[in-house]
């Protein structure tokens, strides 16, 4: 006889089962880093006010997918690392572990694998020393493993000429660098195949991809990123500090100065600060002779380290014969964008007796600010009769530009 009350349901409510993440990231931070010469193990060495490990975790926690994160550190630094890693996560992180490493990198990875949740199907192994690796590289590796079910390793082309030598350091041959890639991390693998490869490993390998391939698995290369370089030496550390300074809100600012002079030419029309000045004496030049636009162009190119107006837009190039200033400014903006820069501010001092500039200053500032998508301020002065400008022989413009480095 049923003990349920009349009308009561006999079906028990289902308790939802929370499934863990399918991606696991093992961050290897157990190395001593003797070549870096730091007082603490490498991952705990300072980099721009934080530890190398904290910078590395920024990228891990910036991944699109939720992931179980296992950080492998020296045994005597586990407690320190737990506080550091928790703070770096920025919020409660359900799938976060810190474990002591082994005497070798391979042993450390194996210890990390051992604590991964059963839900994990894709494993990424990342060296904390590659602290500036962008989050997009982690996402690309995960996608590659999911699509191919093989090992995925980011790599960059080798640019140096490579020589093979014998025991006496005599050159045996030159290696075809077109066939070479310098590999980076994170390296990604299907969980089951990586576990099996580690179980079968009978010797040390230089990276996880080598161990995975020796077990008979396929490894493919995807495009790496220059920022994913490994911090090994003090020089590498200084390079990383410089990149972080450039990426900071004010650290990425660059300044440049440009100067341009044109003589008056009665046979030409006057173009100044991007404006046409009917009835005024014109200026001689290969293009429209606008010293303001030309000085701005020089200042922008200088700030971005892209040369100068003469080398980029030479007078021998017929495309710029008679071109107006906006042509040079637009072309310069394209070059800056390609190099990763945007214009922050431009200021120009115009020196000359004529034309009287103040009535059209606001008009010129609006025009140039619109062209550059940045504030442009203009000022004009004379030299009280001194020099070629004071004698009314021409006009000089001096421009100062500030550009900002942008990072993906």
Give keywords:
single chain, 408 residues, alpha/beta, Spore Coat Polysaccharide Biosynthesis Protein SpsA, Chain A, 60s Ribosomal Protein L30, Chain: A, 30% helix
Give a written overview of the molecule.
The structure is a single chain. The chain contains twelve helices and 19 strands. With 408 residues, it is of the alpha/beta class. The protein has two domains: 225 residues, Spore Coat Polysaccharide Biosynthesis Protein SpsA, Chain A (Alpha-Beta Complex), CATH 3.90.550; 153 residues, 2-Layer Sandwich (60s Ribosomal Protein L30, Chain: A), CATH 3.30.1330. The strands form six sheets. Strands 5-4-1-6-11 form a five-stranded mixed beta sheet, sandwiched between helices. A hairpin with a 5-residue loop joins β8 and β9. α5 packs across α6 and α8 runs parallel beside α10. The protein is elongated, with a radius of gyration of 31 Å. The model has no long low-confidence stretch (mean pLDDT 89).
| Principal-axis shape | elongated
The value of Rg in angstroms is 31 Å
Adjacency order of strands in the biggest sheet: 5-4-1-6-11
CATH arch. level architecture of the largest domain: Alpha-Beta Complex
Quick synopsis:
With 408 residues, the protein is of the alpha/beta class. It has helices at residues 52-61, 78-89, 105-113, 135-148, 191-200, 208-214, 234-247, 291-304, 309-312, 325-338, 361-372, 387-390, and strands at residues 23-28, 46-47, 50-51, 67-73, 96-100, 122-127, 151-157, 162-165, 171-175, 181-183, 187-190, 219-223, 253-265, 270-272, 275-277, 282-283, 341-351, 376-381, 394-405.
């Amino acid at each position: 006889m049923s003990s349920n009350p009349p009308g009561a349901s006999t079906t028990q409510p289902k308790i939802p089962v929370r499934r863990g993440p399918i991606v696991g990231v093992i961050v290897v931070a157990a190395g001593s880093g003797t070549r870096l010469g730091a007082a603490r193990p490498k991952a705990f060495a300072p980099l721009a006010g934080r530890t190398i490990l904290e910078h590395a975790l920024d990228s891990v926690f910036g991944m699109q997918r939720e992931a179980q994160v296992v950080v492998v550190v020296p045994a005597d630094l586990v407690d320190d690392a737990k506080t550091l890693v928790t703070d770096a996560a920025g919020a409660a992180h359900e799938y976060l572990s810190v474990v002591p490493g082994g005497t070798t990198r391979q042993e450390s990875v194996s210890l990390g694998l051992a604590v991964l949740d059963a839900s994990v199907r894709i494993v990424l192994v990342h060296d904390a020393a590659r602290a500036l690796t962008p989050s997009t590289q982690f996402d690309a590796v995960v996608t590659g493993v999911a699509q191919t079910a093989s090992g995925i390793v980011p790599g960059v082309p080798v640019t140096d000429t490579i020589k093979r030598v014998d025991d006496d350091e005599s050159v045996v041959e030159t290696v075809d660098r077109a066939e070479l890639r310098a590999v980076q991390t994170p390296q990604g693998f299907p969980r089951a195949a990586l576990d099996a490869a580690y179980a079968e490993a009978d010797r040390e390998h230089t990276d996880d991809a080598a161990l995975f391939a020796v077990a008979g698995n396929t490894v493919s290369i995807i495009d790496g990123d220059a920022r994913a370089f490994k911090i090994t030496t003090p020089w590498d550390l200084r390079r990383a500090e410089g990149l972080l300074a450039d990426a900071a809100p004010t650290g990425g600012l660059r300044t440049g100065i440009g100067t341009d002079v044109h003589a008056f030419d009665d046979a030409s029309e006057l173009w100044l600060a991007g404006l046409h000045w009917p009835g005024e004496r014109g200026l001689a030049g290969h293009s429209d002779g606008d010293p303001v636009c030309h000085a701005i162009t020089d200042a922008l190119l200088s700030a971005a380290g892209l040369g100068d107006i003469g080398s980029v837009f030479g007078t021998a190039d017929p495309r710029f014969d008679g071109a107006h200033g906006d042509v040079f400014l637009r072309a310069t903006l394209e070059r800056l964008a390609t190099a990763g820069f945007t214009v922050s501010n431009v200021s120009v001092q115009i020196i000359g007796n004529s034309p009287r500039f103040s009535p059209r200053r606001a008009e010129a500032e609006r025009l140039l600010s619109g062209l550059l998508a940045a504030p442009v301020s203009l000022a004009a002065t004379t030299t009280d009769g001194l020099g070629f400008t004071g004698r009314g022989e021409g006009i000089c413009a001096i421009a100062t530009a500030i550009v900002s480095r942008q990072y993906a």
